[in-house]
Design a protein that fits this description.
Layout lengths: L6 H5 L21 E12 L8 E10 L2 E8 L2 E8 L2 E6 L4 E6 L13 H4 L4 H9 L3 E8 L2 E11 L4 E8 L5 E7 L3 E11 L15 E5 L9
Parallel strand pairs: 6-12
Antiparallel strand pairs: 1-2, 1-11, 2-3, 3-4, 4-5, 5-6, 7-8, 8-9, 9-10, 10-11
């Protein structure tokens, strides 16, 4: 199963606040942060379909960096987006890999910039509309008012997607998507804007880290 084709929608998860304006004399602007938890149930739908995978993850965003702490099948992993590198770390074995982001090359990660993509959560809504989604209703999830967007043949890629966005700020609460090879149901919760130490977004000491010449497939993350 290749989830790389669904990367644009996954990028929409990473929403942070607008820039904080400061008046003269210039002061150091606080670095915008966001944290949330996500649960994703992913299943392959082709002939080689295996069992459904459930992925639990905690996502931390701080300025231009991101940290994703996940668990699937009893294996813990941490993905760090810390330009100019992306890391995939295995805490239990104190090992990991990294690869350099080549902005000049087209890739799943070259255009990934949390600060740029998520200054305005409303960009999530705009991306859905550009992909052909339409507002199909309103509702409530856990007492939170939402708008519901649905797209068939989303982005012209043969994918169907239905997304529930918070009406207050357009952050996602639920996603149902399917394509020729996959089906995914994801939910988001516990949005917060905590103080996050810069050390959370750098490779920890004591890990054996190999540098890869090429980025691994998106689904390997």
């Amino acid at each position: 199963m290749n989830l790389a084709r669904f990367t644009p929608s996954l990028r929409c998860l990473l929403a942070i606040s607008p820039f904080f304006a400061v008046s003269a004399p210039a002061l150091a602007a606080p670095i915008p942060t966001l944290s949330f938890d996500v649960t994703a149930r992913v299943a392959a739908t082709d002939r080689s379909a295996g069992p459904q995978q459930t992925i639990q993850a905690k996502v931390l965003l701080r300025g231009e960096t991101a940290r994703v702490e996940s668990s699937s099948g009893g294996t813990r992993a941490v993905v760090l987006f810390a330009p100019p590198y992306i890391y995939r770390l295995l805490p239990d074995s104190k090992a990991g890999v990294r690869w350099k982001i080549e902005a000049r090359k087209a890739s799943n990660f070259a255009a990934f910039d949390p600060q740029q993509l998520l200054r305005e959560p409303a960009k999530i809504k705009a991306a859905l509309l550009r992909g052909g989604a339409k507002v199909v209703g309103k509702g409530v999830i856990g007492s939170v008012p939402v708008e519901i967007y649905q797209g068939k043949n989303f982005g012209g890629r043969g994918q169907n997607a239905k997304v529930w966005l918070r009406r207050s700020d357009s952050l996602p609460l639920r996603l149902e998507a399917s394509g020729a090879q996959f089906k995914i149901v994801a939910s988001w919760r516990n949005y917060a804007r905590p103080s996050l130490a810069a050390g959370l977004f750098g490779a920890p000491q004591g890990y054996r880290i190999r540098t890869l010449a090429e980025a691994p497939p998106f689904s390997a993350l």
